[in-house]
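Action item from last week, closing it out:
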Amino acid sequence: MLTSIIKYLLLFFLIISSLRGQDTTYLKLNLVEKKLPFGLTEKIPSQYPEVAVVLSGGGSKGIAQLGILKSLEEKNIRFTHLIGTSMGSIIGGLYSSGYSISEIDSIFHATNWNDFFSLEITDRRELFIDQKITEDKAIFALRLDGLSPVIPNSINTGQKVSNFLNLLTMNAPLHVKKNFNELIYDFKAVSTDLVNGRSVVLSKGSLSRAMRASSSVSFLLPPVEIDSLTLVDG
């Protein structure tokens, strides 16, 4: 009996002495502020690995990529960069601006995309009187550069798409002041230089214009001029 008590006492003192000999280590995280919609911020570790999500095009079928973002949210998988081209640039730009997945989904399903990419007929209410008279008499209109006819580079002026994107970015929870890395994610829109065929990455300036340039499908929408570059669908 006495032997057992002595063993337990020795074991107790050994445990106490080992605990006293250990140094307490404190884990310190370097936190940085991450912007959230409506002027809110949250503290996140600065040492998160940089992960990029890339969204492709595909027209209306590209809307299915919302499911990818939703899955990442549900799994709490963090990423820092969001890159998109064509429809992917519109989804990425809106998501980076603070729109939720459900909001983007509702906007897309309420939008008549065929109206954006069809032959555009100008509303008579937007015409001047002399233009209305000409339109009533003319079978078709042809622009001239001097005596040479000007062949349109697309079937649509793209004004409806531009207005649509401008309205969405103006109503977004977050706005770009200079660079797209000011948004929730470091966003980049990929387009193509029509002159040399090289890819152009847009990361600053007008967000709506960058999305518009990245989604300028040849012959459906005209190219977009940015910094002396003629840009089309990436």
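Closing note: The chain has a mean pLDDT of 76.
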